[in-house]
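Input:
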Amino acid sequence: MKINAKKINKLAIGTIWALVSVVVLILIFLLGYILVTGLSDISWKFLTSTSSSISAGGGIRDQLFNSVYLLVLTIIISLPISLGAGIYLAEYAKDNWITTLIKTAIEVLSSLPSIVVGLFGYLILVIKFQLDYSILSGAIALTIFNLPLLTRSVEDSIEEVPKLQREAGLSLGLSKSKTIVGVVLPLAIPGIITGVILSSGRIFGEAAALIYTAGQSAPIVSYTDWNPFSPSSFLNPMRPAETLAVHIWKLNTEGIVPDAHIVSSGASAVLIIVILIFNLSSRFFGNWAYRKMTGTTRKKRG
Amino acid sequence: MTQPDYNLDQHQIIVPPGEIALETKDVNVFYGKKQATFDTSLAFPRFKISALIGASGSGKSTFLRCLNRMNDGVATVTGAIMYRDVNINQKKLNVYVLRKNIGMVFQHPNPFAKTIRENIQFALKKHGVKDQTVLDQRVEQSLRAAALWDEVKDKLDTSALELSGGQAQRLCIARSIAMQPDILLLDEPASALDPISTAKIEETLLELKQKYTIIIVTHNMQQAARVSDYTAFFHLGHVMEYKKTADIFTRPQVKATEDYISGNFG
Amino acid sequence: MNEIKEKLLKPSKETHQDQIGHLISLVCIGFIGILVVAILFFITTKGLATFTTNHVSVIDFFAKSDWSPSQKGPNGKPEVGALAMIVTSFAVTLLSAILATPFAIAMALFMTEIAPKRGQKILQPVIELLVGIPSVVYGFIGLMVLIPMVRTVFGGTGSGILPATIVLFVMVLPTITSMSVDALKAVPRDYRSAALSLGATRWQMMYKVVLRAATPGILTAMIFGMARAFGEALAVQMVIGNAVLMPTSLTSPTATLTSQLTTQMGNTIMGTLPNNALWTLALVLLVMSLVFNVIVKLIGKRSAFKK
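Output:
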């Protein structure tokens, strides 16, 4: 009996080791596959030339820019809303049924499939508000997709600030909002930055929410036209904009480009590298912001 | 340690002579349904130090926090608290003006994560003081008053988080003083500090009493005896005895006070 | 003196600041609330149009598997039976969660019981990287690697439930793992030492004490994994075959709710039956997402250890 138990123990722990190794090997394979097949396809030309929808040799310049532009716009729209909502949940929300309802709503939103969010964006933004397939539609759809997570990260970061800091502000006769903005928020910013960078990675790789909002075409734009209202400007938010992730999807489902898998593997590698950078840098920037915010190196002003 | 049952209705509370800065009438505090203090009626004289002593959980800190409405949103407070002929325990009251006039220093030093200078200027600026010379003056004045000036005058622009515990606590006192309040509430300001820092804080308090009315919560009886003019003893949410510090420590009239002072419980 | 008395009873700049601050944050949270309500409302009304406007029978929709909403079928009406997609969606979801859970539990045990320090250090980044890989990249690798493999081994096109399950297995693995880790960490330390001091082997301790105590948490983790698998669109769409047919084997081309939505929404005209039928698929997705949420809440209510 005793010996048996020991044998089973050995067997079980061996199995755990084996399963864990399989997972690690899967990851190594995935990253290895993307980087090995993809890196050789990445060249300066690949990154800076326009894509082709029929012939080989297309690049990803516009898709790459569109991904970045959409990311920036999404963060610009979603960060203020998330800040307000996170502050509400952390500072103002009372422990009652309304708060429970709001929290449930946020949970529901965060668990919605991104394709559903994309279709809602299609229905409301593209069709009802007639924004068409555009960067703006895409950015708003991504905002919906991003809001629950970013709100939670803001809420958590604010709740981690010691209560004593709030009391210090309030006891000096400062209003609650001044205390939040001037005392609590600076201490929460490192956590918020980490949250923003992590969600940036998610946004950058998202495609399902964009297929029917930002669209699946990348019109040729002029990178010298800085007027966002000009139809050919790269900054015009009303033009359709296929992103890198959507491009990969499109090449592999409807594409007729002969070198689809080469472009896809190159684009996948670019996507993965950018996301890796986001993931690795999130903590670094968080720590950096903490040093800034706690004022250890602050210079005298005024 | 078991506490003897004292008759909680048997108490001795005096009204100090002279000008009264702050007075409470039948103040009760409730955390939900649980009552924390019972019918507390105390008068705090101007330019004196009054100490609130008692075992932990006796309600002294809870009571202190009513005096500048720091219990808002945490507990329900009934009764009247009179300050400058205004009952400050009313809904209509402007708590921001009140807290500017009645400052508070907490048990654990809580300087802002800003520079030493900013710690003092921050609230002033938010309250509309813009003149840089005034701001600089206030920084120096309040740091001097808190006996911290000499130690930090050369590093005003370094982070306040780099100060020692005792320095940080004196910075918090300076930060409150900079608001030029009337009354200073201190909630066990030295309990987290070493003896040397404690002595410095006590010295500071004796200096400050010339210009401010001070109410201090402490569980350290020697501290109360050293610095305060009047002492109130809290027991299970009731004030058992309130009188001149010298009297309460040498001739306690209530059994509970006597037992507490002689170290039988608490 | 009187000046202060007056000030004490009058609102000041701070009072207004507070009202404004409170209001702004309320508007933000209200926006999110309205957004959720709007999503539920619009997708529900759009999704119900198939039944209310086009008078498709609800029973036919859920019980039949012939899907050709744009053409008239043998009985003179378009056929709108979503059963094949529903079955495939559930099949890939359940299979991938069942496949992933043993791996996730092994990962979680490794990180909390077997090598807490080293395991955490190595496996935490593994989890984060697996989460970080975008779904189109998973789909692309599935297309490039899995499909040819399946084709060689089983014949046929290589697409279908099997490659979709494998792709989803990797995608839900990090979700289930990280939540299982939380569940195991919530089991009090004394449980472990008590078991060990009674002479239990480490595996007995893990299996009989830790895993048993963490069962509700692990179930919750599985549900979250399933929610992710059920809603995943692109990675599945790239390897499933995209033929609305009842799956006959694990390697026959078929379609899920999400894959059908992804490929067809752009090919139909707003307001027509083929389009409305797609919105009904979206509604099914939405309802299932809510159902997963409710199940999580129900498990949470019974769980012994709350976070």
